[in-house]
Amino acid sequence: xxxxxxxxxxxxxxxxxxxxPILERELGVTCFVSEKFDTDTLGTFTGEVERRDDPMTTAxxxxxxxxxxxxxxxxxxxxxxxxxxxxxxxVHADDEMLLFLDKKNNLxxxxxxxxxxxxxxxxxxxxxxxxxxxxxAANFPAxxxxxRKAKDDxxxxxxxxxxxxxxxxxxxxxxxxxxxxxVETDMxxxxxPTRMKVIETATHKLVDKIKSCCPQCNxxxxxxxxxxxxxxxxxxxxxxxxxxxxxxxxxxxxxLKEEMYxxxxxxxxxxxxxxxxx
Length: 278
Prior knowledge:
Helices cover 26% and strands 27% of the residues.
């Protein structure tokens, strides 16, 4: 279905370095990047352009707008979100969405990679010592930094700082003018090897899902679409909030598959039972 076709990677931040080798090897496509579409028009990490849509919608727009400008029917785009982990509130997380869009076959295949492997951070800086501490924690200069007048201020922003001399010059400029500055990690993929690695992991996950075909019609992208709670308590037998089964649905023919006990256990520990451990 995909071998020999051209696949557009909708990015301006060099994500093709992580995505293209995997997709070309595993799917037989020929990947390319185009400058005709600026993905920053849909939002920037630094806030000059607000991202108005959720990550999935934004990734879909990237694919569709880039395909239209390049007269292409196969594309992939990623969209990352950074902030508190949804379950570990005091830990930063990278939530990466990767979307594969095949207009020719009316296919949309999405994967998500949520990880705490990120250097995402930001801090108000007033002294050279504070700056050195922050830079070390952010894995600078292997990872880029961004400096601005103040947090959320978009009037003066310097991006892509990757050497100590430039960082020192930026520090002197902002502290000389405003007595402080706000320094943050540059989360654009080309300045963030840790994020690039997450995109690579997500791409492997995407390939696995593409290669998972519907047992009934053989359409690619047969994956988990929902889960059911209700794994019984091993002590009292009451249903718990733990996963009883996963549901797989084909987006083409609607075939539904139920996978019981996906975590390879038929009962839950009483410690997770609302009746035994209220």
